[in-house]
Amino acid sequence: MNSGKYTAITVQTSVKAPKELVWKYFTAPEHIVNWYHASDDWHTPKATNDLQVGGKFNFRMEAKDGSFGFDFEGVYEQIISNELIEYSLADDRKVIIEISSVADITIVTETFDTETENPIKVQRSGWQAILDNFKKYTEANK
Questions:
Q1: 85 close to 79: Cβ distance less than 8 angstroms
Q2: Tens-place pLDDT, residues 11-49
Q3: What is the biggest distance separating any 2 CA atoms in the chain, rounded to whole angstroms?
Q4: Domains of the chain: which residue ranges?
Q5: What CA–CA distance (Å, rounded) separates 140 from 40?
Q6: Distance from CA of residue 18 to its chain's centroid?
Q7: In what order do the strands lie in the sheet with 69-80?
Q8: Cys staple from 131: which of 13, 52, 63, 69, with CB 3.0 to 4.6 Å?
Q9: Quick one: which H or E segment has residue 98?
Q10: What is the pTM of this model?
């Protein structure tokens, strides 16, 4: 993570699903559009994901009422299938996603550099809400 420039925050969820299914739902655009939002008044109408080192992703996040939207995008730096994703966002912040399993539970841990526009508490709750939506979607569709 970027020392000094940003604060690193970690969020986590435990999903009752096999690691391979968690990986698929976490990385496949046809699944990302179903869960990548922090609240029910937002959605991700479009997602592209070139899951390889040097590959780019772009998740278009929009308010459902059309009042605001933005592209969440970055470039992959390291990928270990079913275990690890590291990427840099467009503003150079770093994100590390670790996937591990214990028995029939898969744990997804995200550590991300905060940005400077929004309070850290808001960022933590937003990223956690997205992970919570991922858990709910994956468990409902396994």
A1: yes
A2: 999 999 999 999 999 999 999 999 999 999 999 999 999
A3: 44
A4: 8-141
A5: 17
A6: 18
A7: 8-15, 105-113, 94-102, 84-89, 69-80, 56-63, 42-49
A8: 13
A9: strand 94-102
A10: 0.93
Q: Position of tokens 């899951």? A: 51
Taking alpha carbons only, the member of 56, 58, 25, 23 closest to residue 44 is 58
Nearest-5° Cα angle at 102, 96 to 108 = 25
For 50-101, write each residue's pLDDT tens digit.
999 999 999 999 999 999 999 999 999 999 999 999 999 989 999 999 999 9
Contacts 24+ apart (CB under 8 A), 19-24: 19/82, 19/99, 19/100, 19/101, 19/106, 20/82, 21/106, 21/138, 21/142, 22/99, 22/106, 22/108, 22/138, 23/81, 23/82, 23/99
Residue 46 has φ and ψ, to the nearest 5°, of: -145, 140
CATH code for residues 8-141: 3.30.530.20
SS (H, E, C) 64-96: CCCCCEEEEEEEEEEEECCCEEEEEECCCCEEE
Q: Are 139 and 17 in contact (CB under 8 A)?
A: yes
